[in-house]
Amino acid sequence: MSSDFWAGYLSGAIGIIIGNPLDLVKVRLQAGCAEANASSPHVHLNRFDNVRSLVRGAAAPILGYGALNALLFVAYNRSLVFLDNSVTDPTNPQTTTLCKIWIAGAIGGVASWAVSSPTEFIKCRAQLDTRPGVSSWTVAKDILQTRGLKGLYYGGAITCARDSVGYGFYFWSYEYCKRCITSDDDGARKAALKILLCGGVAGVATWASVFPLDVIKTRLQAQTIAIQPENRLLLRSQQGGQLLNSFQLFRETYRAEGLRVFYRGLGICSVRAFIVNAVQWATYEWLMKSLTNSWTQAPLQGLMNEVYET
């Protein structure tokens, strides 16, 4: 397979390992309501039950997000070359416009939907269901048994919309930041720091652009969890056992909690996004350089010398 596939896969898996604890907080803040009611008493969902809860729901994303990230970068790189045949190196598309970069990123987001939709659904369910013994695997088996294969794509439409818009801004903001602060005379160490900074900025910009969509996606998928006494959730999205669609959820959520609820958890999400995407982009760029040199039978000594010289 191509170097961008493996670079995307490995960098995505590393990003999930680093960011899962903060993602768990973000999802629980999004799903929880602001006030208590008699039928389901409020519990602060950002408090962890134990240390093991820090990695709750991580198995599916580690496997799934690696594949998602691989598809994303492959689709983005191929789309960018298709949109602008003057681009010879998609990791450094200085000759193309930011508009084309956004479009290529949006196409990449749509292409990754086949993996992102079931991965997000399983992760969301596993993170919100606080009953003992619940894991990504038990959640996946339960969905398949009760909803079938099609059930893994519950909430797929809003997930696709979120990913398309979000990844458009992801690549756009990363390249825009690089063009603003990177110069040709930077040493390897300084260039690496700028990649970390640009990656972090891209992550924050991405989530800021789609966070309300992500809140609705989380609540839409959280409806499928049976609310039981031992399952400490506070969700007002179920009315008489009926599952609401995205538009109904938006209306009911806004009516009950106002506009601020659509940005609940954005702070912790931004911290997570900066850290995860800084590391992810640095890993991707390094792996692309390493794998490309290795597979073209070029010695890696030059790369190592460049690092050591700094």
Automatic annotation (TrEMBL):
It is found in: Mitochondrion inner membrane. GO terms for cellular component: mitochondrial inner membrane. Keywords: Membrane, Mitochondrion, Mitochondrion inner membrane, Repeat, Transmembrane, Transmembrane helix, Transport. InterPro entries: MCP, MCP_dom_sf, MCP_transmembrane, Mitochondrial_Carrier. GO terms for molecular function: transmembrane transporter activity. It is a multi-pass membrane protein. It holds the Pfam family Mito_carr. The chain crosses the membrane at residues 6-25, 54-76. The keyword Nucleotide-binding does not apply. Solcar repeats lie at residues 1-82, 96-180, 190-290. It comes from the Eukaryota. This is Uncharacterized protein.
